[in-house]
Amino acid sequence: MFYRADLHIHSHYAQACSKNLNLETLYQWARVKGIHVLGTGDFTHPAWFAELQEKLQPDGSGFFTLKNPPQQHAPEGMKVTDTDVRFCLSTEISSVYQWDGRTRKNHNLVYAPDFETVAEINKRLSRYGNLAADGRPTVSLPSRDVLELVLNTSPRARFIPAHAWTPWFSTLGSRGGYNSIQECFRDLTPHIFAIETGLSSDPAMNWQWSALDAITMVSFSDAHSPQKLGREVTLFNTERSYDAMFAAMQTGKGFGGTYEFFPEEGKYSYDGHRLCKVVLSPQQTNALNGICPHCGKPLTIGVFNRVHTLSDRQAPLQPATASNFSHIVPLPEILSEINGTSPESKKVQQAFISAVSKFGNEFTLLNDTPIPDIERFNATLATAIGNMRKGQVTRTPGYDGIYGHIKLLQNELPRSSQTLQTRLF
Known about the structure:
By secondary structure, the chain is an alpha/beta fold. The strands form five sheets. Strands 1, 2, 5, 6, 7, 8, 11, 12 and 15 form a nine-stranded mixed beta sheet that branches. Strands 3-4 form a two-stranded antiparallel sheet. Helix 6 links the parallel strand 9 and strand 10. The radius of gyration is 21 Å and the shape is globular. It starts with a strand and ends with a helix.
């Protein structure tokens, strides 16, 4: 069975996240996007865990269904394809600690097949941090020890390093991470079967480093609002169950690859210093010894530079067992470019409702619908999606917490983009 999974999201209990991140709204937006399996996020938070226990029921496969789905199966005004949405118990944990003379800050994803396992994980983790302080709790426990705690709780619990390359909070990041998976997890490294690429990285970038050849590349949205679900997703063709899904990640059998951001769109793609509006390629940064030419402070080293520093290949070499992937641009961003307004504008929202209602869900339109069928609906939209699928796009890299920009239509660039691209290239 083919299905799409987004296993890294947050709840309304997480800091800097939408108050609309409740189960009912998540259910509706999963159907808008075309997501079949959705992480719950934040199961470590006591109030959210209580809400999950109240509103979800096990389906016998290790996933959960919503006991009382909203009568409106999509946000008001939308008509969507009937998608059977299941939930997977998940959370993200922030480990902040000292190791080998440096402060380490790593985010990791943890999954469980039942409420009993979650309760035990939460009980053990509560010794190392206040789980009620944030949907994504901070614990004073090294990543390696969080992994050990998870493994000792249940043989079916799973652990995946989150957005593995981002500078500040990741396993391999330039500021808070390590120089290898082995250095971080040491004796437990064999239990790391997958890493989340993050918005600023894609599998091809990871294939430049032979040390990652045996690790599966997964991608999820890290959504902080319902509308951001599915920015990246992972594809499967297995029995739709908890054990089968994770077995696919571990063995490659039934693993279908990922839908990815163009990595330049991620907000830690290139090096830079946002206060000085400086954005630099790895080569430019190296020439400056990593120092901002405006203020003299250290630059935030982005993912492209970090991958280049650690990798041992001049070009990507796809492992024989690795699946392919596709780049996508979220539909609201495509419609924003077409209409010349922000993705949040009323004009774009109306166009989004119209397109989703016509084609059933966002992923069907972006990836599956023949271009001639889209052309009969809107010729400009067909051109934009065709260019996206072929990778014929203009890329303005993000840096130091500022998202990049992907341009799909080859008309004249806005002045701000021209200025930025002149500096970059």
